[in-house]
Automatic annotation (TrEMBL):
The protein's name: PhnO protein
UniProt GO MF annotations: acyltransferase activity, transferring groups other than amino-acyl groups
Highest rank taxon of the organism: Bacteria
Residue intervals passing through the bilayer: none
Domain N-acetyltransferase stretches: 115-250
Alphabetical list of PROSITE patterns matching this protein: GNAT
CDD domains per record: NAT_SF
Amino acid sequence: MANITLNNIFQPGNIYAEDEDKVIYLTPQIPLVFDANKWVYKQMPSIKQWKADIATQTHMHKQQSSNHLTFTFPENIELDQQWIALINQEQFELGLMELYAIEPQNFKKYVDSEIEVKVVDEHTIDDYISVHSQFAAPYGEEYVRESSNMIKNQYINDAKTRLIAYKQGVPAGILDLVIDETTVEIDGFGVLACHQRQGVGSVMQSFVAELAMPKPLILIADGEDSAKEMYVKQGYVFISFCYHIVKEDI
């Protein structure tokens, strides 16, 4: 796992422009998806440059009906108090993303006869979307429609392998995999509240560990989310971090 970095994480969306300082993702087909419409800094910008970038991104996003701004800062770069104060002043929400990894053979095997994990196909895609819609609901009805339509139209040919878990035949959780030459990334992992703490998530990850062998599993955890404590208990190792900021309803 020595060479794993945030560059191993799958990035959705279209690259609009790239230079030595940043990458600009702009995806007009899905304007409401934050991660597909954002700027990723390779080098830390000056405050003056960042303020100019806010103006430029605002113009670009409004042209394609994206109603948010979002920036990701370089890997393993801490933000000082001046930056944090400016981010708050500009009314951005500050988040911390942490990268974790585990060798699949180190993941404990979990089996439960009441829990079944399936790769999503034409027979299970509607169940997958019904679970996804519940997780997407806080972002608004328009986002639910846009993201659900994208999944329905692209799930057969897109870069992700999608899984769904059933508890006694009832849809309980979903999880996406991005499988490349060196790693298997867990993304979009969620278990419905009514099925949490019933072993659903552990059985899903155990299924993935077998599928991933011998490639390491990687995932992004919210630095302020209690879920990362679960990952550490399961044997995941912290690799790196980065800060990201979002401003909604521009």
